[in-house]
Amino acid sequence: MFDQSITAFRLRKIPVKLHITLLLFIPYVAFVATRQFARFVDELGMPVEDIHVPPFVWGLILAVALFGSILLHELAHSLVARRQGAEVQSITLMALGGVSQLRGEVHPEHEAWMAFVGPLTSLGIAATSYGAFALLRLPPEVAAALLVVAWMNLALGVFNLLPAFPMDGGRVLRGLLVSRVGRSRATRIATVVGKVMAGAFAIYGIVSFNVVLVLIAGFVYLGASAEQSRLAARDVLRGVSMADLMTTRLGEAHPGEAAVDVARRLLIGNLVGATVLDGEESPLGPRPLGLVLASELAERVARQGRDLPVEKAMLTNLASVQVGDDATSALDAMVSGDGKAVLVLGSGGGVVGLVTDAEIQRLMALAALGQDLHPR
């Protein structure tokens, strides 16, 4: 589900991604705030004629405030994770919170606290905003905006505490259950609860004609399903060597080549992709600039024309693992890049293989057929 995200910026070298649910929700908040702001001020007993800034500007300000609130919510998770020694690979901001992708497993007690600190931050922002609204003498429109920010963060904090995986409450539930029933069973319980609550959200959203709640229900359900799939994949890949997982069907390409020629060469040679290599010589050999995948490259050529140079189509934000790593590290690393592939590096730093969803699905299928993936 994190493939439906775009990397917006980096914070302390951590990619911050915007999920499609946030990209849809923030414009909705701006639209609703624009239409309802004057009426909201009036219902608070404040003089509407004292509004000096146009409502659509307040709508944009409140949408930005929501984005900032979600970012602070997720940064709280990441800071606690780093303090516990975890490596934060990326932050994905969503409509009602976010997800910090960490490398490796986290101690269950630490995971519960890391999950809880996000809603705690949102509730802290809500309390601070309401305190400013109640105690300070401010222009009516500023006071109304602070109250809206307080309500948004109250909803953000309370909603995320619901035990519906992948929201924070679901992660707290899993963290509390791990020591009693083990990580696999705890995850299954948390994801099942998440799916049940997603169904309840969807039914209520349909009955009340609340489109946003239906979208959130879909997000919760897909998140729970994705975590179940990731857990199943980790169970299969644990103990498998990277050499047994990766594919070595890689070619080479160089800047300036036409993408159509590279795509043709890869498809004829039955290659998965090619590393785009810098032409400059170095003691370790040509430096990889990026990677192109055969099927994706052919689609790009069909869409953008045969004159497309290969460097315009290459992927440059790919995560990497070492060939001696456990295969589960490829699964963890995939979410820190663009999610399409992971480079496997040899001891000299050169690319020796590639892992995509196809390689993971191949091992999953072999495991389902009873194949021993851990030869002695």
Query: Would you list the SSEs in sequence order as H and E?
Result: EEHHEEHHHHHHEHEEHEHEEH
Overall geometric form: globular
Tell me the count of domains.
2
Quaternary status: single chain
* Mean residue pLDDT: 81
Total beta strands: 10
Structure overview:
- The protein has a four-stranded mixed β-sheet with strand order 1-2-3-4. Strands 5-6-7 form a three-stranded mixed β-sheet. A three-stranded mixed β-sheet has the order 8-9-10.
- The protein folds into two domains: 233 residues, no CATH class; 127 residues, CBS-domain.
- With 376 residues, it is of the alpha/beta class.
- The protein has twelve helices and ten strands.
- The two termini are 35 Å apart.
- Helix content is 56%, strand content 15%.
- The protein is globular.
Observed structural traits:
10 strands; single chain; 12 helices; CBS-domain; 376 residues; globular; 56% helix
Describe the SSE topology.
Elements: E1 5-11, E2 14-19, H1 20-43, H2 55-83, E3 88-94, E4 97-102, H3 108-135, H4 140-160, H5 168-181, H6 183-207, H7 211-237, H8 242-245, E5 250-253, H9 259-268, E6 273-277, E7 288-293, H10 294-304, E8 319-322, H11 328-334, E9 341-345, E10 351-356, H12 357-368
Helix pairs in contact: 1-2, 2-3, 2-4, 3-4, 3-5, 5-6, 6-7, 7-12, 9-10
Summarize the structure.
With 376 residues, the chain is an alpha/beta fold. It has helices spanning 20-43, 55-83, 108-135, 140-160, 168-181, 183-207, 211-237, 242-245, 259-268, 294-304, 328-334, 357-368; strands at 5-11, 14-19, 88-94, 97-102, 250-253, 273-277, 288-293, 319-322, 341-345, 351-356. It has a 4-stranded mixed sheet with strand order 1-2-3-4.
